[in-house]
């Protein structure tokens, strides 16, 4: 027995092609609409058994808001997300929003149909390898560059952060001392402490590590210095 469906995707050609393929297999497709932004209202009005919603950016914040709205207004509607090979967090976000499954855009029509039948039956419809990847990522999240930069930044005192920024700007010990109004020996001590805390052996390595982890971007708002030899703007 066919399923009452809706297909919604930003790419109208893709939506219409999938709708046509599903009609040929005996399903009743209520609509093939674009863009996905208006999907929630359309689904709530037509109340299909299963809705397929396409997205090209499953990891984008708020992308699954239509799913949340559909499940709130029409909890009996099973929602399947159609998308690219996803970041595991994208799959997790889809399920957290209330989706019944995730189907890749390049899945064969037989695979899409199996997912539809599972969703209608109240089962989770997602390929085992995608689900395994999602659980693996959530249980063992990869460190993000910004996280590492924040961790390193917290190891340094405000004065050491300024020293690191000046090192990254190419200032030598004399210029650092002049710019900060301290003795060259004190500037040299600060530099050595920065290198030790960052676990690097040279100023060049310290500058490269700070840039790679995003530490310099985070440090910028915290330390606005004027290069030695220049007058601050008033």
UniProtKB/TrEMBL annotation:
What domain of life does the native source organism fall in?
A: Bacteria
- What are the entry keywords? DNA-binding, Transcription, Transcription regulation
Segments forming domain Response regulatory: 4-120
What protein name does the entry list? Helix-turn-helix transcriptional regulator
Its GO biological process annotations read:
phosphorelay signal transduction system; regulation of DNA-templated transcription
PANTHER family in the record, alphabetically?
Answer: DNA-BINDING TRANSCRIPTIONAL ACTIVATOR DEVR_DOSR
Q: Which InterPro entries match?
A: CheY-like_superfamily, Sig_transdc_resp-reg_C-effctor, Sig_transdc_resp-reg_receiver, Tscrpt_reg_LuxR_C
What GO molecular function terms would the record report?
DNA binding
User: Per its UniProt record, what SMART domains does this chain match?
Assistant: HTH_LUXR (SM00421)
HTH luxR-type domain residues are 149-214
* A Pfam family per the record: Response_reg
State the species of origin.
Answer: Streptomyces dioscori
